[in-house]
Specification:
seven-stranded parallel beta sheet, about 20% strand, alpha/beta
């Protein structure tokens, strides 16, 4: 097999050198060029013929977003954004994912062998996964999805410049139930589409989206601004309430615990589980233990296998599990593993996610009402 050809774009000479060192040592990856700014990168597209591009978010002359737009217009290629761990970096990276970047890697805040080894492993894994992706098809799917979002009736939402009007029914019939959702690569645009459509009443929704620290707060705010559900970054002590969504904080593990008749979030540091922190498996296993048959597990787009064991725990406890299908997934990985390992009850297309989840929630309520 031929090597994956990578073009490295970053205004920092030190960062370009570090990325090149990581990739040069990785079998099956070849650095075919480096560029200090977006204009130079565009000039190199035809001659370097990259398979994947790593692109700095913040650059002079032509920033990462403008460069991304032009790259995808000229040659739809897999682009992995390199972002600083700041609020501004998070916002810009989320914009880039909306515009068609496939994934991102957070720049290290400090040095040290352990930090560099982690970054190298993540970058190499994502480059290998993204190589060969049909970006043209993915962009078409995202354009169609964005058009549907614009046309979708949203009576509970206000104008784009103001937050959404929230669904305020307390829904006591769902206070003892839970939706546990795991997602990774391709998650931000997928969740934006789904949460714009979801309407209450619904049980509390706990979400693990693989993201670094400082990104999840900005991401939760974005989802909250377009959803009739209340979306927030989870903090220790949060009591799970119906019609609320709790996003696991990046770089931490999110546990759930039952206390005095309520279920609360417990945010802890700790080692990665299934290769991730936060880990879908950690959160789902807690949900399965507490809610049992009253838990709905949902696993969506993303690379790796995190969440398969969690879905298995939910099914074993009597709950129901759903998985996003291959056709609507940016990366059919976590959800595929859960299916192959027998941990899913049903698959769904992203376009029908809101209706499928709402239907299954009503079935949970009907079963509880008759004592099943």
């Amino acid at each position: 097999m031929s090597s994956v050809r990578v073009l490295v774009v970053d205004d920092s000479a030190l960062m370009r050198e570090m990325i090149c060192d990581f990739l040069t040592d990785a079998p099956g990856i070849e650095v075919v060029g480096t560029a200090a700014n977006g204009r130079k990168a565009l000039e190199m597209l035809d001659s370097a013929k990259p398979d994947v591009i790593t692109l700095d978010v913040q650059m002079p002359e032509m920033d990462g977003l403008a460069t991304l737009d032009e790259i995808l217009k000229r040659r739809p290629l897999p682009v992995i954004m390199f972002s600083s761990l700041t609020t501004r970096g998070a916002d810009t990276t989320l914009d880039a994912l909306d515009r068609g970047a496939l994934d991102y890697v957070a720049k290290p805040e400090g040095g040290g062998p352990a930090v560099h080894a982690t970054l190298r492993e993540e970058l190499v894994r994502k480059i290998r996964t993204m190589a060969g992706t049909d970006v043209r098809r993915m962009l078409q799917i995202r354009r169609e999805r964005a058009e549907k979002m614009k046309q979708r009736p949203s009576p509970t939402l206000s104008s784009p410049s103001t937050p959404a009007v929230k669904f305020d029914t307390k829904a006591p019939q769902y206070s003892d139930k839970c939706i546990a959702l795991g997602i990774s690569t391709g998650g931000p645009p997928a969740l934006a589409s789904m949460f714009q459509s979801l309407r209450g009443p619904l049980p509390p929704i706990v979400v693990v989206q693989h993201m670094p620290a400082d990104f999840t707060k900005a991401f939760a705010w974005r989802l909250d601004s377009i959803s009739s559900l209340t979306v927030k970054e989870a903090t220790s002590g949060d009591v799970l309430q119906p019609n609320h969504v709790y996003i696991a904080p990046g770089g931490k593990q999110l546990h759930l615990r039952k206390e005095a008749g309520s279920v609360k979030c417990l945010v802890r540091d700790g080692e990665p589980v299934s290769g991730h922190k936060p880990s879908v498996d950690v959160m789902m296993k807690c949900a399965a233990e507490i809610y049992g048959a009253r838990c709905l597990g949902v696993i969506m787009t993303g690379m790796g296998r995190d969440g398969s064991d969690g879905c298995g725990a939910i099914r074993k406890a009597g709950g129901f599990t759903l998985g996003q299908d291959e056709a609507s997934s940016d990366v059919y990985g976590m959800n595929k593993v859960a299916l192959v390992e027998g941990n899913l009850d049903r698959q769904f297309h992203l376009d029908e996610a809101a209706s499928v989840i709402s239907t299954q929630v009503r079935r949970m309520w009907d079963r509880a009402a008759v004592g099943v």
